[in-house]
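Re-run with default settings, no changes from the original entry. Doing this only to confirm the output is reproducible before filing.
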Amino acid sequence: MESRWIEVKVVEKQFGGFYFCEVMKMRKQMIKAFTLVELMVVIMIVAILAAVLVPTIRGRVNRARWSEGMAGAGTIATALRAWCAEQGVDKAAAPALADIGLAAGDLQGKYFDSGDYAISSLTYDADDGTFDYLITVTAPTGVQGGPVTLDEAGVWLNVP
């Protein structure tokens, strides 16, 4: 804070028959504060930013929910590759999740569970190692969009 000296009053004093004039000085402190207009401008800026960001953030919540389902599909893809390698024979039919070593609770998440995943198709040729599959994830209650599909190349289709 900045302070300034200002003259306040003049006092006469008598000392041994002589009069002396004394100038009393006091400190005046400057008070710094925001004006009402400045505060209103800041409040308006914050309100505009909130109006723009809230819908964007709400859209990200649904995308975050789908990331759980997509992670589960990746787990199924890894288990499916391991299962085909262990079997070592040609496959032309899609197995159940239990057949590839995934129990019902293995895919239990906050939004998705094992009933939301399906292996749509599977083709595995043990001789040349070609491998084709589609894993479909359907949206449970409370999650918008879908279904989302993962193929053998790791490409996601219909991502919300």
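The first strand starts at residue 3 and ends at 15. Strands lie at 3-15, 18-29, 117-124, 131-137, 148-151, 156-157.
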